[in-house]
Amino acid sequence: AQSVTQPDIHITVSEGASLELRCNYSYGATPYLFWYVQSPGQGLQLLLKYFSGDTLVQGIKGFEAEFKRSQSSFNLRKPSVHWSDAAEYFCAVSGNYQLIWGAGTKLIIKP
Amino acid sequence: DTGVSQDPRHKITKRGQNVTFRCDPISEHNRLYWYRQTLGQGPEFLTYFQNEAQLEKSRLLSDRFSAERPKGSFSTLEIQRTEQGDSAMYLCASSTGAGISYNEQFFGPGTRLTVL
Prior knowledge:
The complex is a heterodimer.
Chain A: E1 3-5, E2 10-14, E3 19-21, E4 24-26, E5 33-38, E6 44-50, E7 56-58, E8 64-68, E9 73-78, E10 87-95, E11 98-101, E12 105-110
Parallel strand pairs in A: 2-12
Antiparallel strand pairs in A: 1-4, 3-9, 5-6, 5-10, 7-8, 8-9, 10-11, 10-12
Chain B: E1 5-7, E2 10-13, E3 19-24, E4 31-37, E5 44-50, E6 53-56, E7 65-68, E8 75-79, E9 88-95, E10 106-107, E11 111-115
């Protein structure tokens, strides 16, 4: 069955520090992978996506993610976080028309 | 604003009442999706339309849930005889697409339902 696991419910990072959010997926074929961010009162916003090709993908707001097929992972990274990055981050895999989502990781920024 | 809009943003109702939510997709998008998101969880797929055709509805949570998209533009999601367990955020998204292709889904702000 298709599934997405985000093992970290919460992550706390100091402002200016680097960030890595983990995502593991289970999918039979080559996956389409996504990272979305959700801020309070805001809709889900796409940060980046992987369909094929270069396994390191760049997104908006300085985020990047690396697809590692051997590890079934698609981890999200940012070299230096800003207080405005505090939000909930969701990893998702596409099962044709629908998205299958992880439970999310809440990012807390320490000043 | 040409994004996905949802109405209302918040709905408080009493158990047993019926509620209806509306979603207006991005105008050129032919696909429309409904998801439910409970606290601490990622969104859960409910149903989707391609134009006015409802191509997948087996994930609707019970027969109390129904959705329509009568003219292939806006869509409504109705919950009959609401229960406290229906309290959640209901998200709508839209995209272009045909066949089994996948295109980026754009999400609305959601409707938060509270059943008392």
